[in-house]
Amino acid sequence: MATQKAVLVCGAGGFIGSHLVKLLKRENYWVRGVDLKYPEFSPTVADDFVIGDLRDQIVCKNVTDRPFDEVYQLAADMGGAGYIFTGNHDADVMHNSGTINLNMVERCRTAKVKKIFYSSSACMYPAYNQEDPNNPKCSEDSAYPAAPDSEYGWEKLFSERLYLAYNRNYGMEICIARFHNIFGPEGTWTGGREKAPAAICRKVSESPDGGEIEIWGDGKQTRSFLYIDECLEGVRRLMKSDFLGPVNIGSEEMVTINKLVEMTTEIAGKKLRIKHIIGPLGVRGRNSDNRLMREKLDWEPTMKLHDGLLKTYKWIEEQVKSMHK
C-alpha cells in the first residue's frame, strides 16, 4: 500500500487556501494548514491546523517538522482594490508578504521539501500594458520591463524571482502561477478587503428593487474573473506537470465592471441604477492570456462567468440575510 502523501498549505484560513485544503483531502492527501486564523465560513477539514504567523521563522520551522511532498505557499497580506490601491497599506503588504516568502522558501530548502507552489498575481504585470480597457496585454513574457501598478504587484514580482533563484541555485522544484481575480463562495464579501464580484454581489443583495448601487470609477474598466474550482484545477495540473511557470491561471472572458453589475442584477432579478463614484481602481484593463496555459498544461477553464456568479451570489445573499436577521 502506497504511503499517504503529506502536504502543507500556507494561508489555509484564507479563501483559496481553505478551498485547496478541501480538494487535497478529497484527493486523499494528509494535509496540514497554517494561518493566522481558521477559515471564516466553514470548519477546516485539514488533518492538522496550526494557528501561527509565518513572518516568524520559528513558526515556519515548527510547521515543517515532518517531511512534506508538497508545500502550497498562498499566505499573503492582500485584499481587493479598496485595500491594495489606496496606498495606505503599502508598507505592511510588502513587509508582511515579503517576509513570509523569504522565511518559507528558505525553510522549505533546509527541510528538503520536494516541491513548492507559489501563488503570484496578475497585479505584477506592467501598468503601461493595461491602459486600453479593450486590449490589455498580459502574456507571461510581457512582465518586463517591470512596472506594476501597486506595491502588492512589486512584492509578487520580487517573490517570483526569489523562488526562481532558489530553483536555479539549489535545484528546488517550484511552480509559480499568476492568479487573475479568483472568486466564489466562502470568500471575503464585506469589510474592505473584498474583491469586485463579492462587493457587487453584496451591494445588489442589500439594495431594494428599483434602488441604486455605487460603483467606483466609470465602470468601463475591464477584468476577467475565474471561479475558485477552476483555479484549483489549474493549480493541481501545474503541480503535476514539469513546468515551473510562471503561468497565468485566469479566465479569458473579459467584461467591464458595468457588465459585471448587469449580470449580477439579472441573477438577482432586480432593476438597479448605477451611481459612479470616485474610488481606487487599479489598471484600466486586465484579462488573462491563456496561450501558455493551453500549451504547457493542455487545459483551460471552461466555466462561464455567469455560472460562477450565480453560485457566488446565492451564497452572499445567504450571508447578507443572516447578518440582517
Question: Could you give the topology of this structure?
Answer:
Blueprint: E1 6-10, H1 15-26, E2 30-35, E3 48-51, H2 57-63, E4 70-73, H3 81-84, H4 90-110, E5 115-121, H5 151-170, E6 173-179, E7 182-183, H6 196-206, E8 212-216, E9 222-223, E10 226-227, H7 228-240, E11 247-249, E12 255-256, H8 257-268, E13 273-277, H9 291-297, H10 305-323
Parallel strand pairs: 1-2, 1-4, 2-3, 4-5, 5-6, 6-11, 7-10, 8-13
Antiparallel strand pairs: 9-12
Helix pairs in contact: 4-5, 6-8, 6-10, 8-10
Number of domains: 2
Radius of gyration: 19 Å
CATH architecture identity of the largest domain: 3-Layer(aba) Sandwich
Q: Percent helix among the residues?
A: 25-40%
Number of separate helices: 10
Biggest sheet overview: 7 strands, parallel
The coarse overall form would be globular
Based on helices, strands and strand pairing, what is the structural class? Answer: alpha/beta
**CATH class designation of the largest domain:** Alpha Beta
Can you tell me the CATH topology of the largest domain?
Rossmann fold
Low-confidence stretches: none
Average pLDDT, all residues: 93
Strand order of the largest sheet: 3-2-1-4-5-6-11
**Proportion in β-strands:** 15-25%
Order of helices and strands: EHEEHEHHEHEEHEEEHEEHEHH
- Please identify which CATH superfamily of the largest domain we are dealing with: NAD(P)-binding Rossmann-like Domain
Give the termini separation.
Answer: 51 Å
DSSP strand count: 13
